[in-house]
Amino acid sequence: MAAASALLMAALAVFAAAAAAALDTSPVPFDAGYAPLFGGDNLVRSADGRSVTLKLDRYTENHDELDFELLGNRRGHGWRVQTNMYGNGSTARGREERYHLPVEPTVAGVHRYAIAWTPNNIVFYLDGVPIREVVRVPSMGGDFPSKPMSVYATIWDGSAWATDGGKYKVDYAYAPFAAEFSDLVLSGCDASSVADPEGCQVDLLTHDVAVMAPSKRAAMRGFREQYLTYTACRDRVRYKTTVFPECDDLANGDSSFHLWGESKKKRRRSSSPLQYSSSMQ
Ligand SMILES: *[C@@H]1O[C@H](CO)[C@@H](O)[C@H](O)[C@H]1NC(C)=O
Fold first, then answer.
1. How far apart are CA 189 and CA 194, in angstroms?
2. Which of 61, 122, 141, 229 suits 46 as a labelling partner, its CA being 20 to 30 A distant?
């Protein structure tokens, strides 16, 4: 019995020695071997790269966000698309707008979704047509996005709210669902560059995508007349006391919207391409 167990010990020892010889057990520096996925300032590496400190505190929500969100559809019904913005963590004040999508995103080829973000305004474009402009007014304060941003594309399950307010859930019998992204264009002022930030901003402010010429305003009005189905600006149920200072179109009368911000108009669904002047790209 004793002899058998000694043999086993010896075998294990030999195995361990062989493993130690095969593996490089020297530490991998944090900047060479690891990439932080999230955590921001709560993840701090030591100067020599040998250790990392993770800090726990109360989460301060201060992020900025501009969105295009395709809200899916149910069989036989058109798609809806939503735009939204948050600034400095203003997630309690969602500025959502929803529209009938005048195109079928799954079959009618590639569509272009664009956002022009300048210090003075934000313009959302669908296939070259401006569909929403948020003009910055001083009383918006930090609600107007002003931090360096990056582009983030994803697909997620919004069953709790997206399709008819959460009435229709994702049916995973049809999974996997796919969102295809191509031809990403990103241009503007590089947040990490200190070279000529003013010059860059002037270029941005005077760029075609940021300047709302009268013809573009007309195209935007036309789109909104036809396709806007909801705007937080008119939602007196969700926002009993909150006033959005940039909502300057209330003079046009609230009577075409329900108290909860939904348009009373029967909006048109159309598969015809959007109309816009060739000068607008
Ligand atoms: C952003 O929000 C924080 C509080 O969450 C506040 O202290 C700060 O002043 C805000 N920044 C701006 C630019 O409004």
1. 10
2. 61
